[in-house]
Write a sequence for this structure.
């Protein structure tokens, strides 16, 4: 770049940048999510942003996600260090293709493989890292976003009660966030694949059928039927699939309908297994105290990713269904063991927090927090009283109150405006007269009320009013 050229410092498309009020909201939500995760015994880990490309693409785990490759860029004065392919000759791993992780689950599998002998199983972990996807950036869809994931992984066998815990965890998180009514929709992939088999769908067509069924809410019933027929599914079979995924009623009514259906079809072994697993999970969800209005069975929920094999979940915010799923996940059997060659079943859920915040702010479901965590501003009435202001500020902080000390002397009204603009509710005012009598004036910027308080009582008065 030539000297004097103008630099475009705008953020690249799809890479979000939060204002302080938005970032504070993200941290607030992360604290809630972390607290719930840890209450169920999940332990934190963090995996590198960069993985070997062969790890991310292992056995088709990439799905439809576009992966960002990564290579070092040498400065102009080091161009001679490049090899013929343009790579850094001093980089011992230059021959390895590397890329940014697009989700947390595939890196989890590699993490377990790397630390197999250091971990205790079932291994329950949470991750709240940033991931990268080279998808088309648009409203509510980003190329860089934070995901909050939990997974439980076992060696050989994993109790279905871990599947049952997931709706309980989702419920606790969204009730704590207080986002309104939501519904956790539960299904089992074995129910779908078992039904497809029982109505004569060929084994090699089932994968594509599940992917089509998963698009029902986006494209509608008619288009789903058309897409099924394009895959070579007979019109009668396509209609049977539509009728099946539209089965509704209460949780118990749907389970009864599925059992009755299985009695009248052939080759129902996998269908019956799926129904049995679904029944076990529902019983566990109830025993964990999840309210009946928080979950349902929805046979149209398929989760398009290939690696899901059993229970699947999607969570919808009622009244804001256009937002799509706000938390999803499911059970998988082969994903984690792909690097070790052994069966390692797992179950997990994921909250795309960056996307969720963007959508809920726009829908008016969430509001940003104040730009600063400070609850009090100690204003500057006169510079010679700064030692007093510093002592009072520290006294308040030691009492657990967040404080900004205004070091710049300016008109009192301007200092009030500065505090109000940042969302600070209280201002402490100490002039020479107050300092001499060990008093202060405490002004509530929300109500306009101003009271006189002894300095010794100031912290307790502020805490009382904040409460």
């Amino acid at each position: 770049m030539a000297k004097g050229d103008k630099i475009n410092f705008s953020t690249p498309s799809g890479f979000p940048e939060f204002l302080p009020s938005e970032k504070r909201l993200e941290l607030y939500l992360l604290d809630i999510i972390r607290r719930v995760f840890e209450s169920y015994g999940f332990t934190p880990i963090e995996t590198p942003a960069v993985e070997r490309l062969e790890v991310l693409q292992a056995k088709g785990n990439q799905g439809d996600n576009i992966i960002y490759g990564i290579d070092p860029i040498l400065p102009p004065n080091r161009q001679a260090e490049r090899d013929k392919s343009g790579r850094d000759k001093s980089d011992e791993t230059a021959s390895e293709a590397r890329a940014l992780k697009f989700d947390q689950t595939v890196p989890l599998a590699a993490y377990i493989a790397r630390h197999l002998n250091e971990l205790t199983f079932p291994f329950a972990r949470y991750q709240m890292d940033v991931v990268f996807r080279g998808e088309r950036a648009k409203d509510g869809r980003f190329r860089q976003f934070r995901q909050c994931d939990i997974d439980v992984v076992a060696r050989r066998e994993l109790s279905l009660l871990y599947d049952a815990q997931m709706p309980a965890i989702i419920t606790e998180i969204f009730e704590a966030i207080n986002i309104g009514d939501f519904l956790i929709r539960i299904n089992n992939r074995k129910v779908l694949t078992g039904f497809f088999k029982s109505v004569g769908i060929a084994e090699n067509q089932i994968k594509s059928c599940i992917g089509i069924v998963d698009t029902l809410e986006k494209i509608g019933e008619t288009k789903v039927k058309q897409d099924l027929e394009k895959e070579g599914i007979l019109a009668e079979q396509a209609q049977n699939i539509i009728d099946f995924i539209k089965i509704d009623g209460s949780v118990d009514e749907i389970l009864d309908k599925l059992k009755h259906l299985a009695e009248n079809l052939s080759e129902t072994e996998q269908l019956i297994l799926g129904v049995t697993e679904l029944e076990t999970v529902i019983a566990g969800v109830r025993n964990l105290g999840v309210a009946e209005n928080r979950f349902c069975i929805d046979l149209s929920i398929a989760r398009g990713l290939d690696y899901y094999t059993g229970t699947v979940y999607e969570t919808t915010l009622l009244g804001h269904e256009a937002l799509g799923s706000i938390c999803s996940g499911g059970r998988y059997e082969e994903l984690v063991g792909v690097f070790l060659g052994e069966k390692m079943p797992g179950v997990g859920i994921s909250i795309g927090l960056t996307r969720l915040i963007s959508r809920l702010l726009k829908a008016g479901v969430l509001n940003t927090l104040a730009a600063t965590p400070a609850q009090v501003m100690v204003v500057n009435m006169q510079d010679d009283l700064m030692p007093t202001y510093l002592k009072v500020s520290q006294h308040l902080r030691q009492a657990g109150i967040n404080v900004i000390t205004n070091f710049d002397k300016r008109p009192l009204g301007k200092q009030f405006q500065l505090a109000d603009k940042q969302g600070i509710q209280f201002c402490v005012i100490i002039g020479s007269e107050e300092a001499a009598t060990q008093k202060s004036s405490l002004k509530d910027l929300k109500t306009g009320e101003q009271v006189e308080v002894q300095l010794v009582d100031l912290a307790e008065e502020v805490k009382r009013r904040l409460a």
User: Anything to note?
Assistant: DSSP finds 16 helices and 17 strands in the chain. The two ends are 56 Å apart (CA to CA).
